[in-house]
Amino acid sequence: MMKHKLVTLFFILGVFVNAQKITCSPEDKSLFETKISDLEQTKATSLGDTIVSVGQSFLRTPYVEKTLEVGDTETLVVNFGGLDCTTFVENVLAFSLMLQNQQKDFENFAENLETVRYRNGNLEGYPSRLHYFTEWIRDNEKKGLVKDITAELGGIELEKPINFMGTHRNLYPFLASDENFEAMLKVEKELAKEKLCYLPQDYIESKEHLIKSGDILALATSIKGLDVTHTGIAIHQPDGRLHLLHASSKNGEVEISELPLADYLKNIKSNIGIIVARPTLISL
To answer: What is the pTM of this model?
Structure first.
């Protein structure tokens, strides 16, 4: 009898701890139920088509920056009412994993999102979040979720220190903590060992037929200390050109770029090209 009570107590505590790790409003929980019900009707012939369909289900969702900077402690933030460019991509992958694995429960979604968003798939505080998108790609490639195909497309290597967070501590509320700050400096020290491979802007139009709808695109930048300034999903349009499905800060919502990607990038002064990661979603 005592053993049974102890097992029950640990189960309750486990649920409580897990609940504390997730930040999700009742409205977002309700939105999840509606979205997964709608997405289950998705008819797609390929993984790329699935990802595009999930991405398009977020069209007109408001762009909201810093949606993950909530409270004093890092939690798994679930927010469908407002997305930035990275959380848009992460939510799309998490739902696509659900469809691929025939999952229906919110707990499955939360597990998928944690896997995608955090180093080695484990939320272990603010520094465990994959803040730099080049590391996000490398880490999710190790998990079997994506494959960086930039080099295959003709990408070139660039040696560049990635240390924007460490040199702009005041821009990140969680870095007020010395522990978080020191941990991020260690992350950046490891990133300094990696080379950045990108497809130069002038190459994109001639290579866009090799980029598939559903590929993840990261916009490489010349800004000192930064690797990427924006992310989105590749989508071929009826005009025969490659466009960007993304959470746009300029237009304030998830949209498909009016201009083809190659032309869209020419209007971004700091852009030097793109990094392309092809979803594989084979780990879960």
So the answer is: 0.91
Cα torsion through 221, 225, 229, 234, rounded to 10: 60
CB burial of 197-234 (b: ≥16 within 10 Å; e: otherwise) equals bbbebebbeebbeebbbbbbbbbbbeeebbbbbbbbbb
| Residue 16 scores a pLDDT above 60 | no
Residue 255, SS3 per DSSP? strand
Are 144 and 278 spatial neighbours (Cβ–Cβ below 8 Å)? Answer: no
Per-residue pLDDT band at 283 (split at 50, 70, 90): low
CB 181 within 8 A of CB 175: yes
User: What gap in Å lies between CA 132 and CA 36, rounded to an integer?
Assistant: 29
How many Å apart are CA 272 and CA 63, to the nearest integer?
A: 24
Tokens of 161: 């220190």
Coil, helix or strand at residue 87: helix
Tokens of 200: 């130069």
pLDDT for the residue 282: 75
Q: 169 by DSSP, 3-state: which?
A: helix
